[in-house]
UniProtKB/TrEMBL annotation:
InterPro entries: Isochorismatase-like_dom, Isochorismatase-like_hydrls, Isochorismatase-like_sf. Coiled coil: none annotated. Residues 6-152 form the Isochorismatase-like domain. The lineage of its organism: Bacteria, Bacillati, Bacillota, Clostridia, Eubacteriales. The keyword Hydrolase applies. Gene3D superfamilies: Isochorismatase-like. Belongs to the isochorismatase family. It comes from Ruminococcus albus SY3. SUPFAM superfamilies: Isochorismatase-like hydrolases. The keyword Manganese does not apply. This is Isochorismatase.
């Protein structure tokens, strides 16, 4: 395996962070975005690939009605305007685990990473699922806790953190 490293910035999208978001997305946008931007700058300065991942749901009537966020092609599904975008590496996913994305898998077929650092949204959702997917590649996996949001209870967040640590994810 190569020594190539990547920072995966997960689901930092308008529908989760802007003022018009659904109440269930209770993240402190200013603090989280500042921390993620600092993490991006640090990893970019180290020469790592910065890869942005966006959760999208197909733009069909039932998804617009029942889910109502991250609908493919909508303004809400776009990366948050306050996020520092420093690369063109952007991939959409339909499932929580980024490693299920066909386009991302194509990128991985051309790029082998020894280390993934993961941040963004949400520890108990897509960040955790992506960390598990990254472990399956054989890479070393870090989760940047200060740059990862969680909308769930402290108890649920701690339980998920413990699960990920037990599987081999290193929290930094």
């Amino acid at each position: 395996m190569t020594d190539k490293k990547a920072l995966l910035v997960i689901d930092m999208q308008n529908d989760y962070l802007w003022a018009e978001r659904k109440p269930m997305f209770s993240y402190d946008t200013d603090i989280l975005v500042k921390s993620v931007n600092d993490t991006i700058a640090q990893h970019k300065a180290s020469g790592e690939d910065i890869i942005y991942i966006g959760q999208v749901f197909p733009n069909i009537f039932t998804n617009r009605l029942i889910i109502g966020f991250s609908i493919k092609g909508s303004k809400g599904a776009e990366l948050y305007s306050g996020l520092d975008v420093v690369s063109q590496l952007y991939f959409e996913k339909y499932l929580p685990n980024t490693f299920t994305s066909k386009c991302f898998k194509e990128h991985l077929s051309q790029n082998t990473y020894s280390t993934f650092t993961i941040c963004g949204l949400d520890l108990c959702g897509c960040v955790g699922a992506t960390a598990e997917g990254a472990l399956r590649t054989g890479a070393e996996v870090f989760l940047d806790e200060k740059s990862t949001g969680c909308r769930f209870s402290a108890h649920k967040a701690q339980k998920r953190k413990t699960e990920l640590i037990n599987k081999g994810v290193k929290f930094i």
